């Protein structure tokens, strides 16, 4: 029984019939094995198979059912074939075959009910209908209903029935008649065993449709028609039994050329034309055509070269046929392209012409010449593209020369060879119809693999007769060439020679005619067949067409041994090649691929054994010490522990070789990694750890925790969601109650976890989970203080979300004070009201008013609550073993001196920010005059954002080239009728195009994608994981803008992360570090925001290749990405110093503006004091959300973007890369996301970059913005980048006046 996804069968006309019951029983096993084998090779193990065996040797009754289930993988389906070979015994037992059919239908029902979805379901039944039939008509009807309900096809194999018998019901017994009725209802068929075997041997995989190739069809210099091409048929890759040899590709030889000269006639060189000779035919090739071979393909294109008469189909070549239709934009056909293409198709059809075209799939990829033929059908019309052979294709079919300086055939011999070629020319032979022939090589590989699975210890079988038959030339062809073959045999007599050793000859560097006689002799010797002492042919020498010239990654041990035996390279050079291969194998597998690590281990072993046997001990030991350093620095610790150490492949000791100076004890110590590398922390005798060392019990505890914690977490998330989407006192109290319950649960878990001596466990995954559980967080506080801190956090979020500001009213003349009439309602919320005003207003008084109102109405009420929160939070951190809360937050990044690394990253990016700051400041100076001094900080309220963290809203006022098209698609979104749901659907489609998961249906019903009008909500966009593996939501007050479209992609990046690591334990269901989660959505946004992508999804009319447009685009990106960097860096610098006490509570606001001046170059628009709490006006401060993650994410997103672009095959500037529809990039991204936090984040970076680095690197950002950097430098050449006070961090010309009040000291600052 099979559950099929994609499968087709071409039945052969030749169907051998079975003759006896004994023969039928013998065929059952063979049929089953062939069936499973073809399922694997044709369907790539994509189908599910279940085998049901009826009866047994002991019971001899049909009611004893044995079910073997094998589903969906190569390993399991090969196991199915092995099971059939070992278990199936076909004997004649009486029994009702309908009982077995009932079991099959029940299994199908259970599989479908379990949620499995199949394209088709087939039951293949092997029976001879010899047993009495006893099933009632009621049961028969029930089975028919079941077959129809599950849409199941029924195939009967083994019956004596033929087509004539089926036409006469009287010739059928009752069982056959019922089976015939079932088969008709279920759309099945009858087969004999011979029929079934023949049909299985002629199965072919169904062709697959790929993504469209979008390009313009160019006709001349003025006509361009946007088209989308779809591949109709594509040849699948051949199966391989063994890995490819690790040698260089051979170059193709040049063909010999002939020059026909008249007797005694002098011919100028330019009048001579080369030609290829194929038998008696001469195919001329002009000099221009030869020059054309060396042309670069250039940019992707489909250009018409000429319109010609139809070309015979036999001249087609290549790997596929493309059907060309008008271009589609987001599923909508381009009407202009449709009209133009239709006119072209009909004109070609009426004129009876086809087009010769130049085809380049991607920039500088292989150039192809093809033919476009019109096709007009009732339902559609299109152009059909077939590739034609030209220079690059011809060279694939070239042969070694016959004429060499050493061996010159006579004219008679040449004539005989030409005649033989003519006789064996298959281009017009009806016997050679490739559409009706299978590939003998593929058939033989399948046969060998199937045989080795069933008989792993037996030698390879002979080629089966039915395959040998396909290897023989057609009899009619050979009959026609019989005479000329005899003539060739007479003209080329064979001579017996001694066994000659072939010299090393690189066929890849051979020309059509060897340059010297010595070259010709080398070539001749290299081609000779090697004979062993018994005279048998050495097959390896026959099939070896390449020479091993270095150690490769496919068969490194074999290459290593071969090179050492040849002795043509110094041993040290071969050792060096082997060491590079070992490192490459580890890096290619990211230190996690078992197959590559096993191959690397074998390389180390071969290297060690040779060094030991040949006396190169010191050389090997020196290399091994360097290799260990590389392993440790690149986190390949699994390879070292599980492969090197376990196999004892360390330093060579004195006991093994007298040439070594290494003691055995030192070698043993060398194999052990240091404790910090192993992640096994040293355990102090005085440290309060439990004494339970039972790892099995620890695993049971972790499994129980995962179940209970997931349920508790789900409850907490639901109440938090209720509060954030409906801010009331009731929802707040319910949230606090569940948070308190969860904290108590966490404390109980922590108490149990600390009874284990988990730091001594050998399994790093278990240790890592316990490490997470050992940090209790706020739950470590006493219950009263825990309630207090939870209430403080809820209150702070409540104050922030509920705050409303009065609208600005322009004051009358002669006064600077705004008027607030009593009729005006103070109901302006941050989102969208204040955000829109800060973005759009150009009135400095209004901007100052809004800035001041928000900061004071929000920040001041939070100040005292924040101070108390800091005290309680620090107490909780100390209870968890940290110095303060900042120390606890930094610990999640697993870097000892994380702050120094951040500072280093910032210093690498600061010059770019300073150039952007200088340009924006100058443009604002032109707009606002002295309010923006050319050498000072920029007033914070003039940068288009409440916190000056993003300057995107300044784009229109400061755009470098205002006459160029805008990249903002906001108007296009509104014009096309986008709403929030459609924007998120577009974002979801991006991830689906990468081969990643789509959001569940519940996402669309449960998320809050726009701001409700009937209640207060927290509008700050956020993604939510409800801890149950299926409930994921987004909360966002979406506006129809390009900015919010980008935010939608960002938030769905979080959701994708949640869905990818859903199978990890709860402790690991988070980002590799907090910055990873933010980076994933943003890395997608880097592709989404490109003009190319916006044009592709129909939101931008065109994406032109214009340097000025590129500068505008990069500038808009810099206003968002680069402008944010210092703010993302400094916010937590400020908080960490508050947590540590470096910034006292009575200087928090001064320190806040010191940091903003030093790093960001901005200043407050009005006087500030310690009565203010301006940091609290940023959501993440009252919400207790660490902020350095955003700075980290901005660095990581460009680093990830570069890696994914490389995986997608992008060629060109990094800022033009769009990974949309790249399955390769999606696969790499999914591989990273599935890890969650199960590995340290440097490991995650190393896996993503395939071992190239394990650190954050700002280089990708600088590469991305390189054109803009150079442009900004030219614009800022006459002024110095930077601002007054940027190095000291102290406000220039500031007077601080302390005024003592009863409860607090207020400090006022004034900017001169």
UniProtKB/TrEMBL annotation:
Which sites bind Zn(2+) 1?
Answer: 1050, 1054, 1078
The residues responsible for catalysis, as annotated, are 1051, 1180
- Where is the secretion signal located? none
Q: Which SMART domains match?
A: Ku78
A Gene Ontology molecular function term for this protein is: telomeric DNA binding
Write down how the cofactor binds this protein.
Binds 1 zinc ion per subunit.
Q: What is its EC number?
A: 3.4.-.-
What family, per the record? Belongs to the peptidase M2 family. Belongs to the ku80 family.
Name of the protein? Angiotensin-converting enzyme
* Organism expressing this protein natively: Daphnia magna
């Amino acid at each position: 029984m099979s559950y099929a996804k994609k499968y087709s069968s071409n039945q052969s006309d030749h169907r051998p019939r079975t003759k006896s019951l004994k023969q039928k029983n013998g065929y059952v096993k063979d049929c089953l094995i062939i069936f499973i084998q073809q399922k694997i090779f044709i369907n790539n193990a994509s189908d599910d198979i279940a085998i049901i065996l009826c009866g047994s040797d002991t019971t001899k009754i049909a009611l004893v059912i044995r079910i073997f289930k094998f589903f969906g993988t190569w390993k399991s389906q090969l196991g199915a074939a092995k099971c059939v070979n070992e278990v199936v015994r076909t004997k004649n037992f009486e029994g009702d075959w309908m009982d077995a059919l009932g079991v099959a239908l029940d299994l199908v029902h259970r599989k479908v009910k379990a949620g499995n979805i199949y394209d088709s379901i087939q039951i293949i039944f092997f029976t001879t209908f010899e047993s009495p039939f006893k099933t009632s008509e009621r049961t028969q009807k029930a089975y028919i209903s079941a077959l129809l309900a599950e849409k199941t096809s029924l195939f009967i194999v083994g019956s004596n029935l033929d087509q004539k018998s089926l036409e006469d019901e009287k010739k059928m017994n009752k069982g056959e008649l019922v089976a015939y009725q079932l088969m008709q209802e279920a759309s099945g068929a009858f087969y004999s065993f011979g029929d079934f075997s023949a049909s299985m041997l002629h199965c072919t995989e169904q062709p697959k449709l790929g993504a469209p190739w979008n390009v313009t069809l160019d006709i001349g210099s003025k006509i361009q028609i946007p088209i989308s091409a779809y591949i109709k048929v594509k040849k699948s890759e051949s199966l391989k039994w063994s890995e490819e040899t690790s040698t260089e590709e051979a170059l193709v030889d040049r063909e010999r050329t002939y020059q026909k000269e008249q007797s005694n006639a002098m011919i100028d060189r330019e009048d001579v034309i080369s030609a290829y000779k194929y038998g008696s035919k001469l195919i001329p090739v002009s000099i221009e055509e030869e020059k054309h071979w060396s042309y670069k393909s250039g940019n992707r294109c489909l250009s018409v070269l000429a319109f010609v008469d139809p070309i015979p189909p036999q001249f087609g070549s290549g790997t596929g046929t493309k059907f060309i239709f008008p271009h589609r934009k987001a599923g909508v056909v381009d009407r202009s392209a449709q009209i133009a293409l239709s006119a072209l198709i009909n004109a070609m059809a009426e004129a009876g012409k086809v087009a010769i075209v130049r085809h380049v799939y991607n920039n500088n990829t292989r150039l192809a010449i093809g033919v476009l033929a019109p096709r007009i059908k009732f339902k559609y019309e299109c152009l059909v593209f077939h590739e034609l052979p030209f220079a690059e294709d011809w060279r694939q079919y070239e042969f070694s020369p016959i004429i060499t300086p050493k061996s010159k055939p006579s004219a008679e011999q040449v004539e005989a060879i030409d005649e033989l070629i003519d006789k064996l020319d298959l281009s017009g032979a009806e016997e050679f119809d490739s559409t009706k022939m299978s590939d003998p090589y593929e058939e033989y590989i399948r046969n060998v693999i199937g045989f080795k699975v069933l008989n792993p210890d037996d030698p390879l079988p002979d080629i089966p007769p039915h395959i040998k038959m396909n290897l023989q030339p057609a009899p009619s062809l050979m009959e026609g060439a019989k005479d000329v073959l005899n003539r060739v045999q007479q003209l080329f007599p064979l001579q017996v020679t001694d066994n000659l050793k072939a010299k090393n000859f690189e066929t890849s560097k051979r020309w059509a005619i060897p340059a010297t006689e010595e070259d010709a002799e080398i070539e001749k010797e290299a081609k000779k067949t090697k004979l062993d002492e018994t005279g048998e042919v050495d097959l390896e020498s026959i099939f070896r067409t390449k020479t091993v010239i270095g150690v490769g990654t496919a068969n490194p041990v074999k290459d290593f041994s071969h090179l050492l035996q040849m002795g043509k390279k110094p041993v040290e050079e071969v050792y060096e090649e082997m060491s590079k291969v070992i490192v490459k194998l580890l890096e290619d597998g990211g230190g996690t691929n078992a197959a590559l690590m096993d191959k690397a281990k074998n390389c180390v072993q071969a290297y060690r054994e040779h060094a030991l046997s040949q006396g190169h001990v010191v050389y090997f030991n020196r290399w091994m010490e360097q290799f260990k350093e590389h392993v440790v620095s690149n986190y390949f610790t699994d390879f070292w522990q599980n492969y090197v150490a376990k196999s004892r492949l360390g330093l060579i000791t004195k006991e093994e070789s007298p040439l070594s100076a290494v003691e055995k004890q030192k070698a043993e110590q060398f194999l052990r990694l240091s404790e910090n590398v192993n992640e096994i922390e040293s355990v102090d005798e005085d440290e309060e750890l439990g004494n339970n060392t039972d790892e099995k019990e620890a695993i049971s505890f972790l499994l129980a925790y995962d179940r209970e914690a997931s349920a508790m977490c789900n409850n907490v998330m639901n109440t938090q969601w209720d509060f954030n989407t409906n801010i009331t006192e009731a929802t707040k109290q319910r949230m606090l109650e569940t948070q308190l319950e969860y904290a108590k649960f966490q404390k109980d878990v922590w108490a149990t976890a600390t009874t284990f001596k988990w730091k001594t466990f050998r399994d790093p995954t278990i240790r890592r989970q316990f490490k997470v559980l050992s940090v209790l967080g706020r739950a470590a506080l006493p219950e009263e203080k825990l309630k207090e801190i939870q209430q403080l956090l809820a209150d702070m979020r409540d104050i922030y979300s509920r705050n409303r500001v009065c609208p600005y009213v322009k004051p009358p003349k002669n006064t600077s004070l705004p008027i607030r009439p009593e009729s005006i309602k103070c109901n302006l919320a941050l989102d969208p009201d204040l955000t829109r005003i800060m973005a759009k207003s150009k009135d400095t008084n209004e901007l100052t008013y809004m800035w001041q109102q928000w900061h004071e109405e929000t920040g001041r009420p939070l100040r005292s609550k924040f101070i108390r929160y800091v005290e309680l939070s620090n107490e909780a951190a100390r209870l968890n073993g940290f110095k303060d809360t900042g120390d606890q937050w930094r610990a999640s990044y697993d870097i000892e001196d994380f702050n120094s690394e951040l500072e280093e990253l910032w210093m690498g990016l600061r010059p770019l920010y300073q150039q952007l700051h200088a340009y924006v400041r100058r443009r604002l100076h032109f707009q606002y005059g002295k309010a923006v001094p050319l050498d000072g900080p920029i007033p914070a309220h003039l940068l288009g954002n409440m916190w000056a963290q993003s300057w995107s809203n300044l784009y229109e006022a400061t755009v470098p080239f205002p006459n160029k098209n805008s990249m903002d698609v906001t108007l296009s979104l509104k014009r096309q009728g986008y709403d929030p749901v459609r924007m998120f659907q577009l974002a979801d489609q991006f991830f689906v195009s990468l081969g990643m998961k789509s959001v569940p249906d519940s996402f669309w019903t449960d998320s809050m994608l726009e701001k409700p009008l009937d209640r207060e909500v927290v509008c700050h966009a956020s993604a939510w994981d409800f801890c149950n593996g299926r409930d994921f939501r987004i909360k966002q007050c979406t506006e129809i803008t390009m900015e919010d479209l980008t935010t939608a992609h960002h938030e769905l990046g979080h959701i994708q992360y949640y869905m990818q690591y859903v199978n990890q334990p709860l402790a690991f269901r988070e980002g590799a570090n907090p910055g990873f989660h933010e980076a994933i959505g943003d890395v997608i946004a880097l592709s989404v925001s490109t003009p190319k992508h916006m044009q592709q999804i129909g939101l931008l009319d065109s994406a032109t290749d214009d340097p000025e447009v590129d500068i505008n685009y990069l500038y808009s990106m810099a206003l968002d990405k680069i402008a944010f960097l210092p703010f993302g860096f400094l916010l937590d610098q400020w908080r960490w110093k508050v947590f540590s006490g470096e910034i006292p509570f009575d200087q928090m606001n001064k320190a806040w503006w010191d940091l903003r001046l030093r790093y960001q170059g901005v200043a407050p628009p009005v006087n500030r004091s310690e009565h203010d709490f301006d940091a609290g006006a940023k959501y993440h401060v009252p919400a207790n959300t660490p902020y350095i993650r955003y700075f980290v994410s901005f660095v990581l997103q460009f680093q990830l973007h570069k890696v994914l672009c490389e995986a997608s095959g992008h060629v060109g500037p990094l800022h033009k890369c769009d990974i949309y529809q790249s399955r390769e990039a999606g696969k790499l991204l999914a591989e990273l996301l599935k890890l969650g936090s199960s590995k340290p984040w440097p490991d995650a970076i190393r896996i993503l970059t395939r071992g190239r680095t394990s650190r954050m690197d700002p280089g990708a950002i600088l590469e991305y913005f390189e054109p803009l950097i150079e442009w900004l430098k030219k614009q800022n050449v006459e002024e110095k980048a930077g601002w007054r006070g940027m190095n000291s961090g102290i406000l220039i010309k500031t007077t601080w006046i302390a005024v003592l009040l009863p409860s607090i000291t207020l400090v006022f600052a004034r900017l001169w």
